Amino acid sequence: MKVIPGPASPELGARIAERMGVESHPAVHRLFPDGESYIRITAPLKEETAVIVQTTFPDPDKSLLQLFLMVDAAKDAGAKEVACVVPYLAYARQDKRFLEGEALSLKTISKLLGASGVDRLIVVDVHEPEALEGFCDEAGVQVTNLSAMPDLAEYLKMNGFDGAFSLSPDEGAIGLAESAGAVLGGEVSFFTKERDRHTGEIEMVVKDIAVRGRRAVVFDDIVSSGGTTARAVKGLKKLEAVRVAAVCTHGLFMGGAREKILDAGADVLVATDTVQTPTSLVSVSRLIADHLKKV
Ligand code: R5P
Fold it and tell me: What is the pTM of this model?
């Protein structure tokens, strides 16, 4: 198995290779003056399994195109199987057509992954695993969604949140709070979120849950603008939770998202390294390496 970190995931790719006890072979990458990407795979791949590690942030379009180039180059170099670890998969939130005529981006991306030669796709806490499975199935790509929630909850447990209340900011993410809650050992609940499909504005219904005088954690898959998590934190503070942690797998933290969440009253902010930022306090490298060793 040859681990090939792409230009968007040099650190995580190297960590995964190290945990697997194999050499890391970063793809050579340059930008042409017009902004096009030059990619070269130097690992010997004949009859090998190539594991390409490429997240899709901060530049989703470019990272995806680089991924397609790496996959095709790996196949041309004789790899018998190409597995792509895309820890944060961009375009995954548009998993349905909410308004007529919209591009169904998750379907398009799945088709392109299949067409470029991906045999296996490994993602972490993708927004809607069943939707991805369906589209990947049609595209002939075998997909695995790993969850960082137990590791994130373990980190919180070690850092003062043992027995805390686990909350998801909308009902759709309750599974994340439940798996974290199983580690933390406290109760689990959710608030309700409505998004206006035209303006993108969200509204949160804070239901009365018994967090008064307790510690509580908001778990979500992604923090982008921070609006969702900030509203949930505010809700918990209004219900008089004493200490609140805001936790996500993919910390995109656009604009002033961090400040927004901290101003809302969060005491702690934690994310993983699917997207490398100063808030990446938990690594998904062990999770991914263990999975790769198994398959
Ligand atoms: C959407 O349902 C996701 O699970 C996240 O809640 C959402 O993407 C977060 O976005 P933002 O930080 O912009 O509110």
Answer: 0.97
